[in-house]
Design a protein that fits this description.
Radius of gyration: 23 Å
Distance between the termini: 17 Å
Structural class: alpha+beta
Keywords: Membrane, Signal, Transmembrane, Transmembrane helix
Pfam families: DUF1775
Order of helices and strands: HEEEEEEEEEEEEEEH
InterPro entries: YcnI-copper_dom, YcnI-like_sf
CATH superfamily: Uncharacterised protein YcnI-like PF07987, DUF1775
Oligomer: single chain
Length: 233
């Protein structure tokens, strides 16, 4: 292969790597809640996805704050192997009315500790919530991520009015009205609950990255074929 062809191959390969990094990066850039939307008044299972962004440290503790201004009557946590979980309750200034009365306390913070998320890894922590509030269009879950070196990253910035993403965005669950399309894992609070899970945003981005990679490989092969054809003429 001639030096000219080698230079073309190197350039296309570098372009492929950069494109894939740009495409895949945001999917694991910060703590997120998945799915991203749920129906008001429903019971839903959500997963808090926590990526480890440090090359020289592991994530050892994760704290998720539930919005106290929109309390949720029932909060249950799925056990995560290797992690200890603790749910803190807060007394409500105004009791929350439910179908069989009212509650005066609600879970406002969940802490996972004792486990490790290594460099290049992520962990998902599952929580069942319900019924979701009907008086707001979103729930903002502020999060703290503690690393083995003592560093604490606060994912606590709320969505901006202009739509741009802040540097340390908090996980946000968008709430839609009844009958509107949602991408949610819905949980029915009864014996033998049925659960429906739709593809998450992370999966969609991963598939997009694969498609981009395939296109770039095709471009590389076409360039090589064109170069070889010119040499033979």
């Amino acid at each position: 292969m001639s030096p000219r062809v080698l230079r073309r191959v190197s350039a296309i390969t570098a372009l492929s790597a950069v494109a894939l990094a740009v495409t895949a990066g945001p999917a694991l850039a910060h703590v997120t809640v998945n799915p991203r939307t749920a129906e008001q008044g429903s019971w839903s299972k959500v997963s808090f996805r926590v990526p480890n962004e440090r090359d020289d440290a592991s994530t050892t503790k994760v704290v998720i704050e539930l919005p106290a201004d929109h309390p949720i009557a029932s909060v249950s946590v799925r056990p995560t192997p290797g992690w200890t979980v603790k749910a803190d309750e807060t007394r409500l200034a105004v009791p929350l009315k439910v179908h069989d009365g009212e509650i005066t306390t609600a879970v406002t913070k969940i802490t996972w500790s004792g486990g490790r998320i290594g460099p290049g890894e992520f962990q998902e922590f599952d929580v069942s919530l319900g019924p979701l509030p009907t008086d707001t269009g979103q729930l903002v879950f502020k999060a703290d991520q503690t690393y083995s070196g003592g560093e604490v990253v606060h994912w606590n910035e709320e969505p901006r009015a202009d739509g741009t993403e802040p540097e340390h965005p908090a996980p946000v669950l968008e709430l839609t009205g009844p009958g509107k399309p949602v991408t949610t894992a819905r949980v029915t609070p009864a014996a033998g609950p049925s659960v429906t899970v739709d593809a998450s945003d992370g999966t969609a981005r991963a598939l997009g990255g694969i498609g981009l990679a395939a296109g770039l490989v095709g471009l590389l092969l076409a360039g090589l074929a064109l170069t070889r054809s010119r040499r033979n003429t």
